[in-house]
From TrEMBL:
Its main location: membrane. GO terms for biological process: carbohydrate metabolic process; cell division; cell wall organization; peptidoglycan biosynthetic process; regulation of cell shape. The gene is murG. This is UDP-N-acetylglucosamine--N-acetylmuramyl-(pentapeptide) pyrophosphoryl-undecaprenol N-acetylglucosamine transferase. It comes from Paramaledivibacter caminithermalis (strain DSM 15212 / CIP 107654 / DViRD3). PANTHER family: UDP-N-ACETYLGLUCOSAMINE--N-ACETYLMURAMYL-(PENTAPEPTIDE) PYROPHOSPHORYL-UNDECAPRENOL N-ACETYLGLUCOSAMINE TRANSFERASE, UDP-N-ACETYLGLUCOSAMINE--N-ACETYLMURAMYL-(PENTAPEPTIDE) PYROPHOSPHORYL-UNDECAPRENOL N-ACETYLGLUCOSAMINE TRANSFERASE 1.
């Protein structure tokens, strides 16, 4: 039996593609293990899958000077030693890394043990952890065609993102029941990312009365971000976070408003949902979501509002515009060649396994 060690974390986008691969890897007979942090979102998500989970310390990788770099250097070193011990003990056939700061020590430990490494980059440009991992990787799976300009062409393979097959089994009726909605108005699903978005939350709530005249709104607003002042309003349902229910909420949605992390973009594309993207600003990120969103906008797959424009542009006008043109967006999605990346990524894993 071949053994695979998977890693990746920090946000749901670094974990859910790994989860999408797990059922197929099990069918192929792989013994699957996961390395992540103690308190990261990856632990809760992976342990639900019944996969052995190994904890290591991890320090954040930063592109700027910060006193925390000193303490995090120690944590990264500690994480590397822990990863080395785990890799030595498990002796996997391959390591698959989805990025995030927890992945770097695992990649280094695998390379030290001559274990083949496959990394997956979801975004338009590689994140810092994957940039560091690229020299050690045997193959680099990537998602956006434009990404080939930022990686080694010899190592790179355009695979797309693995999308969880469970998302395709959602039922509109169940989504409607979860939200206590009816069939009289179309439904909007708002996804602010696994950590939520204060900017999106404020914008939606400031316009909620006007929006509810024509639509029903299911708002996934992030942990600790449910506003009690808006509870009990007919047609507006708030959730901190959803897991098993997500497929039904996707099925229910006639339109989606979302951040522009690559994973959720390709889930939206796979499900053919008209959407409005509000990418994370450069002030709070490296700008990857802006590039992701612009790529989708250029292909006619999405309507984009920059975070800085939320106060100037009417969110209601954007909703009405996208909904009235929903057939054009769905047509563009149906014409897009990007599919579920599971098959292609699995091929790479099989080819690279020892």
């Amino acid at each position: 039996m071949k053994r695979i060690v998977m890693t990746g974390g920090g946000t749901a986008g670094h974990v859910t593609p790994n989860i999408a691969l797990i059922p197929r890897l099990k069918k192929l007979g792989y013994d699957i293990h996961y390395i992540g942090t103690e308190k990261g979102i990856e632990r809760k998500l992976i342990e639900k899958e019944g996969i052995p989970y190994h904890i290591v310390n991890a320090g954040k990788l930063r592109r700027y000077l910060d006193i925390k770099n000193l303490t995090d250097t120690f944590r990264i070193t500690q994480g590397f030693m822990q990863s080395l011990a785990i890799i030595n003990r498990l002796k996997p056939s391959i390591v698959f890394s989805k990025g995030g700061f927890v992945s770097s020590p695992v990649v280094w430990a695998a390379w030290m043990n001559r274990i083949p490494i496959v990394i997956h980059e979801s975004d338009y440009t590689p994140g810092l952890a994957n940039k560091i991992a690229i020299p050690f990787a045997k193959k680099i799976c990537y998602t956006f065609p434009e990404t080939e300009n930022y990686i080694s062409k010899e190592k790179g393979i355009l695979t797309g993102i693995p999308v969880r097959e469970s998302l395709f089994s959602g039922e509109k009726r169940k989504g409607t029941e979860i939200c206590n909605f009816d069939d009289e108005k179309p439904s909007i699903l708002i996804i602010g990312g696994s950590l939520g978005s204060e900017v999106i939350n404020k914008s939606i709530r400031a316009n909620i009365k006007a929006i509810l005249k024509e639509f029903q709104v299911c708002h996934i607003c992030g942990r600790g971000n449910v506003d009690k002042n808006y509870q009990g309003i007919k047609g507006y349902e708030q959730f901190e976070y959803v897991s098993e229910e997500l497929s039904h909420l996707f099925a229910m949605a006639d339109l989606i408003i979302s951040r522009a992390g690559a994973t959720v973009l390709y889930e939206i594309l796979a499900l053919r949902k008209p959407n409005i993207l509000i990418p994370l600003s450069k002030k709070a990120s490296r700008g990857d979501q802006i590039l992701n969103a612009k790529s989708f906008e250029k292909q006619g797959l999405s309507y984009v509002i920059m975070e800085e424009e939320l106060g100037k542009k009417s969110i209601l006008e954007a909703i009405e515009k996208v909904y009235s043109n929903r057939k054009n967006y769905i047509h563009a999605m149906n014409s897009n060649k990007a599919g579920n990346g599971i098959d292609e990524v699995i091929k790479v894993i099989i080819q690279c396994s020892k």
